[in-house]
Each structure stands twice: as structure tokens, then as C-alpha cells.
């Protein structure tokens, strides 16, 4: 089943690319929260190169088990005091969203002489249940990033609200893509707009049509999560 699921997503990526919506490659990050190890081994066997965990508590044991076999992403919100457990281990932290976290990751990265790559999580929809920088906070935050030595911003991420009809999320993805393109035109220190992480199982096709190049897929690869 995992193989078929991954094949389907790859096909969808191809179809959308053929329609001319995107020109670059698309990275699939398999969101492996609450999935057992066997399923993760299967996903790796069928070509998955990146997995994303959203809680540090689960990131740690999975990292012990799978390091060297797959790249790790931290996709969920990160408590400042838990940064030390992911810095240097996560290839990419998708949830950079506040000055205190930036400061701590800069400090932890400097201690191991490592440049940590992160994405700025942006709260486009302004739902207060979602984390992320508001659009009008981005400029000031970039000012802080530019002064860092051990943190590098590699792009943007957003969590779209859940609508029953995924078509309704299109405006969120369109807006983030617009911001991504605008920031791409400017040369900043430590900032490189390479990844646009948006789209999950329910809405990845819409996200791809809007220019996403990194989709985070959980149930669409592994099946429904058992809580
Ligand atoms: C769980 C999770 C996903 C994937 O969710 P699915 O709906 O299962 O594809 C993506 N991003 C984040 C931050 C998540 O926590």
C-alpha cells in the first residue's frame, strides 16, 4: 500500500508539472508521526529520502533508529528548550517562528559549530490556533536572521487551515508563493529562498499548482494515523 501511495503522489506531481504549474523538482517529506518503524522502512525502500516529525519526543527515538538512512525534518512547532535535541540532527526545521527560538537555535548551533537550516513558518490565515509569523512581522524577523552566523533561512512554510473543499485553501498558498517570490528578488544575508513547504495529504495538489516545491504528506503515504 505504501508503494502505491507514493507512486500516486509522484504521478500527481508529474501531472501538475506537465500542466506547466511548476518547473523545479518537488521534495516529498513523509510526515511519520505516530507511524511505526516498519512503515518508515517501507517508505525508505520505495524512495522516500526525507521524513518529518512534529514532536521532539518522537523525533529523538526515530533519529536514533533511522539516522544515516533518511534526512530528518522537524515540521511541528518547537519549544525553545527542546531546540538542543534537534539542532545538528534535523536537516531542516520548518517551524522557525519567533525571536526567542531564533536566538536559542543560533546559540545551540554555534556550540557545535554547525549551520542550521530553517524555514520561516508564516501564518497566512491568521488563525490564532496556528503558529507562525504574521506577514507584517516578516521584515523585522529577517533583520534578526541577517545578524545570525549559525542559522540559515532556506525558504518558507505554512500550515493551511482545513477546509472540507481543498480548493478553498488556494488563496493561502497563492499568498505565500507571492511572498516567496518577492523575498527571492532581494539579497539578504543568510537567506536563500529555495524551499516553499506547503501542502499536506488533503491539499497538496492545490499547493503544487500554486508553486509548492516541498509537500509534507502523512496519511497519504502511511494511511490514517492511529491515535
Ligand atoms: C502531520 C503533519 C503533516 C501531514 O499531515 P497529513 O494530513 O497526514 O498529510 C504535515 N505537516 C505537519 C506540520 C504535520 O504535523
Write the layout of secondary structure elements.
Elements (H helix, E strand, L loop, with lengths): L1 H17 L8 E5 L5 H9 L4 E4 L2 H11 L4 E4 L17 E5 L2 H13 L4 E6 L16 H9 L4 E7 L12 H15 L6 E7 L6 H6 L4 E4 L1 H4 L5
Parallel strand pairs: 1-2, 1-8, 2-3, 3-4, 4-5, 5-6, 6-7
This protein binds pyridoxal-5'-phosphate.
Pyridoxal-5'-phosphate (PLP) binds next to strand 8 and helix 8.
How would you characterize this protein structure?
The chain has 227 residues and is of the alpha/beta class. The chain is built from 8 helices and 8 strands, in the order αβαβαββαβαβαβαβα. The chain has helices spanning 2-18, 37-45, 56-66, 99-111, 138-146, 170-184, 204-209, 219-222, and strands at 27-31, 50-53, 71-74, 92-96, 116-121, 151-157, 191-197, 214-217. An 8-stranded parallel sheet has the order 7-6-5-4-3-2-1-8. The longest helix has 17 residues, at 2-18. 40% of the residues are buried. The model has no long low-confidence stretch (mean pLDDT 96). Pyridoxal-5'-phosphate binds at residues 31, 33, 54, 75-76, 159, 200-202, 216-220. Pyridoxal-5'-phosphate (PLP) binds next to strand 8 and helix 8.
Largest sheet properties = 8 strands, parallel
What's the order of the H and E elements?
A: HEHEHEEHEHEHEHEH
Radius of gyration: 17 Å
Q: Tally the beta strands.
A: 8
Q: Trace the largest sheet across and list its strands.
A: 7-6-5-4-3-2-1-8
Outline, from the CA principal axes? globular
Distance between the termini: 20 Å
Amino acid at each position: 500500500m505504501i508503494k502505491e501511495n507514493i507512486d500516486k503522489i509522484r504521478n500527481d506531481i508529474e501531472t501538475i508539472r506537465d500542466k506547466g504549474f511548476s518547473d523545479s523538482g518537488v521534495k516529498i517529506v513523509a510526515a511519520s508521526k505516530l507511524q511505526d518503524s516498519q512503515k518508515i522502512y517501507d517508505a525508505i525502500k520505495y524512495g522516500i529520502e526525507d521524513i518529518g516529525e512534529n514532536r521532539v519526543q518522537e523525533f529523538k527515538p526515530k533519529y536514533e533508529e533511522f539516522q544515516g538512512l533518511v534526512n530528518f525534518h522537524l515540521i511541528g512547532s518547537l519549544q525553545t528548550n527542546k531546540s538542543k535535541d534537534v539542532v545538528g540532527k534535523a536537516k531542516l526545521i520548518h517551524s522557525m517562528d519567533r525571536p526567542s527560538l531564533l536566538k536559542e537555535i543560533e546559540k545551540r548551533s554555534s556550540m557545535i559549530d554547525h549551520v542550521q537550516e530553517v524555514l520561516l513558518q508564516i501564518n497566512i490565515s491568521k488563525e490564532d490556533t496556528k503558529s507562525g509569523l504574521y506577514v507584517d512581522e516578516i521584515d523585522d524577523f529577517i533583520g534578526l536572521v541577517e545578524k545570525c552566523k549559525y542559522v540559515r533561512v532556506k525558504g518558507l512554510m505554512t500550515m493551511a487551515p482545513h477546509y472540507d473543499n481543498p480548493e478553498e485553501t488556494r488563496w493561502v498558498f497563492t499568498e505565500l508563493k507571492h511572498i516567496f517570490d518577492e523575498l527571492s528578488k532581494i539579497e539578504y544575508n543568510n537567506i536563500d529562498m529555495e524551499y516553499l513547504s506547503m501542502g499536506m495529504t488533503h491539499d497538496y495538489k492545490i499547493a503544487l499548482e500554486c508553486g509548492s516545491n516541498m509537500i509534507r504528506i502523512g496519511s497519504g503515504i502511511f494511511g490514517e494515523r492511529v491515535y
